[in-house]
Amino acid sequence: MGLILFFNSYAAEDQGGKGDFILTPKFFCVENYYHNKIVIVLFYDKTQRGQCPRRIPLEGRIYVKIVAVIPARWASSRYPGKPLADIGGKPMLQSVYEQTLLCKSISSVVIATDDERIMQAAQSFGAHAVMTSAECASGTDRVAQAVREVEADAVINIQGDQVLFDTSALDNMVNELKRGCPMVTVAIRASEEDAVDPNTVKVVLDRRGYALYFSCAAIPCRRKPGHAVMLKHVGIYGFSRETLDRFNGLPQSPLELSESLEQLRALENGIPIKVVIAEGAFHEVNTPQDRIRIIELCRT
Fold first, then answer.
1. CA distances from residue 149 to 67, 107, 130, 249 in whole angstroms, order as listed
2. How many whole angstroms separate alpha carbon 40 and alpha carbon 51?
3. What are phi and psi of 133, to 5 degrees?
4. 48 or 209: which carries more pLDDT confidence?
5. pLDDT tens readout for residues 222-236
6. pLDDT value, residue 237
7. What's the confidence (pLDDT) of residue 2?
C-alpha cells in the first residue's frame, strides 16, 4: 500500500494509459496548498491497476505530535542577556515557557539556546533545554537545529522575548497546520503607535488570509485611509516538519537580508504563510525600557 497526498484540483496522472497512479510525496502537496483548498489522502494498491483509490480526510491523521521550541540567545544587540531579565520575580524565559505549557495542542516544549547561562537557568526551572550553534542565522534556523533529533509532525517557534501572549492563538495555529498549511503565523490589529514604529513589523494579507509581504515600514501606505486595516505581525511561527526542514536548507534571501525579517525567506521561495488574526494581548521585550513597561503592566 502506498500513501498519496494531493489536492482536489490535481488528478493522479495516468502513466501510458495503464492506470498507474504517481505516488506523490507529502512535501509536494504541502508546497501546493496555497493554490488549492482541500487536501485528501489516497491509499492505492499498485497491484490493482486502474481502480479508483480510497479517499480519507487529512485532518486529524497527519499531525499527531506538535512540538513548541523557544529560541533564546544571550547576544542581543539591543538587550544582551534579556532571556534572563527578571520580570515578576522570575526570568523572562520562564514566563514564556510556562505560558506555552498552557496550550493543550502542544505535546512538548523545548528551549533552544547557544549560551550555558541560559541552559542552566532553563534547567533550574525544570525545562527541557538543548544547546545549539551560536552561528545560527535566525531563530527559525536555531529551532530547526534543536528538533533535528526530535520526533515531531509540526513545530511552533515562540520567541523567547514574547513575555505575554494569547495562548488561544497557538491552538488556532495548530488547527491551520492540521488543515495542511505549510507555515502559519500570527497578527493583531496595529495601534497608531505601532504604525509609526520602525521596530514594529507589519504584514499585509491577500483575501484568503495569506501573507503578501512583511515590513517594518508602514504597510499598507495610508494614501487613502479607510480601505485596509494595518496589522502588526507577532513573531510566532508554525511549520510542518517538511517546511521547517526546507526553510532551514535555504540560503538567506535578498529581501530577508534587506529587511532583517526571516519570514521573507519563505515568501521569496514560494512557501505560503497563513496568518491567524488574534484578539488577545501580545507583549514582547526588545529593550530594557520594554521590560519596565511590562512590569508596570503586570502591576495594574
1. 12, 16, 11, 16
2. 17
3. -70, 145
4. 209
5. 888 888 999 999 999
6. 96
7. 40
Record the cell numbers describing residue 241, joined without a space.
516538519
DSSP the chain: -EEEEEETT--PPPSTTS-PPP---HHHHHHTGGG-S-EEEEEE-TTSTTPPPEEEE-TTTS---EEEEEEE-S--SSSTTGGG-EETTEEHHHHHHHHHHT-TT-SEEEEEES-HHHHHHHHHTT-EEEE--TT-SSHHHHHHHHTTTS--SEEEEE-TT--B--HHHHHHHHHHHHTT-SEEEEEEEPPHHHHH-TTS-EEEE-TTSBEEEEESS-SS--SSTTS---EEEEEEEEEEHHHHHHHHHSPPPHHHHHHT-THHHHHHTT---EEEEP-S--B---SHHHHHHHHHHHH-
pTM above 0.90, yes or no: no
In this predicted structure, what is the pLDDT of residue 216?
94
pLDDT interval class at 12 (50, 70, 90): very low
The pLDDT value recorded for residue 204 is 98
* Cα–Cα distance, 150 to 145 (Å, whole number): 10
Measured distance CA(56)–CA(72) in Å, rounded:
40
Neighbours of 58 (CB within 10 A): 18
**Degrees, nearest 5: CA angle 271-273-277:** 180
Give the residue from 70, 27, 56 showing the smallest Cα distance to 183.
Answer: 27
> Does the pLDDT of residue 113 top 80, yes or no?
yes
- Pick from 252, 94, 232: which is nearest to 163 by CA? 94
| Angular region, 80: left φ>0, alpha ψ -120 to 50, beta rest | beta
Residue among 63, 274, 245, 262 nearest 181 (CA): 274
66-72 and 154-158: which strand pairing? parallel
